[in-house]
Every structure is written in structure tokens, then in C-alpha cells.
Amino acid sequence: MKSARVLTLLGLAGLAACDATLPTTPDAPLASKSLQLTTLAPTSVYAMGLTNPRGLRFGPDGGLYVAEAGTGGTTSTARNCHQVIPPVGPYFGGNTAQISRISPHGVKTVVVSGLPSSINAMGLSSGISDIEFIAHKLYALVDGAGCSHGHLDEPNGIIRIDGPNSWTQIANLSDWYKKNPTAKPEPDDFEPDGTPYSMIKSDGDLYVVEPNHGSFERVQLNGVISRISDISATYGHIVPTTVSQHGGHFFIGNLGTFPVMPGSEQITEVRAGGALFTWATGFTAVLGTAWDAAGNLYVLESTTAPGGPAPFTGDVVRLAPSGDRTIIANGLFLPTSMTMGPDGNLYVSNVGFGPPGPGQGSIVKIQLK
């Protein structure tokens, strides 16, 4: 296989051209009916003034909490450890990431600031990629740290937020990824510290998807980490990005490699023992998934035009239990994450990476109810 390094999205994954043979599943229920563009759901800007917004969750207090990846910094660790190779690397670290709370009236307040962030040689930032609540405690997934990202003493992993400028590391994922390599990493775009991107709670534990190495892990709150699935071993370098749960099973969407080939990505079901099944195909650059009470799966496609990432081509596709597909929102500007609100509406992190710059990110509400 010959590969060529190309543009990296979100600084998170090996977007080298890579061939992967996708296994088929006879009982995959959503081989899929044709995509329909019908009346779009009403959309509105719910919040503004965010910097590279990523994962978002509604908290027990009714507020919407948003991870902001920040803008990196100027610290180099080039003399201290193995770096990410060009054109993606090297990275420069800083502490510009934060988590903000959006009130039901759309007012933004900073919950915690000074979190690890990094910026790569292509000007794309990583920092806090996702957040989750367990027993009223806020946990954050760090993907912009580690020595290869310009942070000598702060690893990628999961932290518990204790206060406005206080947090506690509960799991060191940088160290774990180095000691537990996957079967088929992409050497042309390898991130030594990993780039964990999506996190979900289940039965008191946290489950994390890592796109660059291609893996899915369980993290207990006592810091014990275990691998559920080596996605790379089954699918190769497909860049898994987002995880959701429905009917007792996990479902993982993938970004894929660049250049974008519309319709080439999938939703993978994780079954007992970590077995992987191709559940639905025909998606493009997936960065978010969410379910409603009726069993509809909503899929966030960050960019849908062929080639490189294209602003204003992001959309949300509704996949019904019948297999019918409908675009319910389009024209999004490189969205990066999505959550279902307690009101039954979708909330999307928009302008989630790249230009136009700090403070330009927003949250878009897609009205389903």
C-alpha cells in the first residue's frame, strides 16, 4: 500500500490515503434507503463567542456545557520527545482551552480555564475534545496535551473538574496508548500521545474513542483503562471519531481519510466482547451522532464536498429505524460535535476548527420538537 500525507482535520487523525476492506454483516439492519432532502428543521444560533468548540453536554443544572479547544500556545518540546512529523507536526502547546456553560437564555460563562491546548503546523488546534457528567461531577477528555503536543508534564487523558481553576487527572491516556499499541497504526501520521476525541458514560464508567490509533477504551473512575475494541485491526485506518449508545450497544462513526470521498464512511456497532459490525454505510466525514426516543439516529457530517474540508457543507442526516434517510439541516460551517438536549432538540458545535479565528465558534440549535 502506498500512502501520501495530506491535510489533517482537528489535528486528530492520520488522514493519509489508505485502503481498508470493510467487513460486511448479513444482519446489518440499515444497508440503507436513498437519502432524501425534505423540509429542513428550523435552526437558530443558541450561543456565540466560542473558540474551536467541540464536545457538548447538558448538565444536571440545565445548562449546556461546551468544550473549547483553545488556540494552543508557543511551547515546544522538540528536544524532549518524539514529535509528530510534518506536515502535521510539530505542535506548540499552551493552556488556552476551557469549558464554558451556556445558560437556557444563551448566556456564556467560563466554568474552568487554563486547560491544555496545542496547535499544529497547519494551524489546527486541539485541547478539550469532549465532556461528560457522572453523579453531578464534570469530566473532560484532553486531546491537546502530551509531550508530542508541546506539554512536557501534562498528558492526554481524562480529568475531573474540581473548580474554576482546579482539576484532577483520573486517567493518563498518553501513557496507556504508548504501552498498548493498536494493530494497524498509520506511520505517516502517527500521534504518539493519541488524540482521544469522543467520550460517553455508561454504568458509571467512561468510554473513549481514539481516532489516530483507531481504538475504543473503557476508563473507570479509579483510573483503570482497558481496551474494548482495536478498530484498526478490523477496518484499518478509518479514523473513528464519535461514540453514542442505543439499545445496550455502542455505535461509532468515523471521519475517514482525506481527500473526502462522499458516502464512503460508516456507523459501526460494538457488540458483546468488543466485536465490530458494519451497521450502516454511505456517510461522509462523521464527527457526531445522537439518538432520539423513537430510535432515530442523527449523524453529523462535518464536510460533504469531495476533496478537502469545505465550509458550509456540513449537515445532519436523520437515519430512521426503517432505513430512510433525511437531511434535516445543512449549510453548517465545519461542525465538530452534537448532542441531544433534554428538550428533544439537537445542539451542534459550529465553526469548530480552523479559520476564521478565536471567538468565532457558535452553538446551533436544530429544532425537532
Number of helices: 2
Number of DSSP strand runs: 26
Shape: globular
What's the rounded overall pLDDT mean? 90
**What integer value in Å does the Rg equal?**
18 Å
Strand fraction equals: 35-45%
Report what the structure shows.
With 369 residues, this protein is mostly beta strands. It contains 2 helices and 26 strands. It has helices at residues 173-179, 231-235, and strands at residues 35-37, 43-50, 53-58, 64-68, 92-102, 108-119, 125-126, 128-134, 137-142, 157-163, 166-172, 198-202, 205-210, 215-219, 225-230, 240-246, 249-254, 265-270, 276-283, 286-291, 297-301, 314-319, 325-332, 337-340, 346-350, 361-366. It has a 5-stranded mixed beta sheet with strand order 1-23-22-21-20, with no helix packed on it. A 5-stranded antiparallel beta sheet has the order 3-4-5-6-7, with no helix packed on it. The termini are far apart. Residues 1-29 have low confidence and may be disordered.
